[in-house]
Amino acid sequence: MKLPQLTERGENYLRKQKRYGKWFDSEETTIEYFLNQQIDIPDVFLDLQLQYSGYEFSCHRKHNFSFFLISKGQIAGNKPLQLTRANNERLLEINEGYATAQFTFYVNSQGEICTYGCETNSTIVPLYSSIDVLIEECAYKDLLYRREIADFSHHHVADKTKLCKYLSAQYKKVMPCSDKYATWFENNQISIQIAPWYGGEGYYLCTYCTDRNIIDTLINQLYGLELLVNNF
Can you give the pTM of this predicted structure? Predict the structure, then answer.
């Protein structure tokens, strides 16, 4: 499976990120390890292991996401690769992921980043359609944090389709960070993120801005239009 290509911003960001050697091995050794496994393994797992396993994505000195798949020790020792099977899907666990989040993160056979487990009521919750969207989002957040733009409280979305339609008429969509799960909008004053709750409870909206008055005006407007809800 050919992995999606990053934008120039994404490539520049990735070059600056730390990659830990204990989470990957040479291409030849890794391919041999996968061939030795006596199970059907999606090609995307090998591609992601070779290209991205071991990266820690940070946003301006803030730890964001650890993409640790199969360790060098496991590969060298030819230890069995354990896949999780759920809902007719095969999942490869991402070690750590968002370290501060009490969820277990996985890659599915389409290369999507998702959560799964007791925290999601045994439901697979896709978060990103591919790792490139995750990297592009981290690169974008890195720029925001470098400009000292902070993220503010999360709000539950009443209807994602209606909310995105409303925002698209007033804001520019940030394409590299947006897919069928997460959507970003921006203008010269504010950035807006709409993304799935990790536990599968729908979607949340988060704002990034230096002016609290701009945020409050927008949030009050969206609640007034019933595009956001207080309880869920």
Answer: 0.92
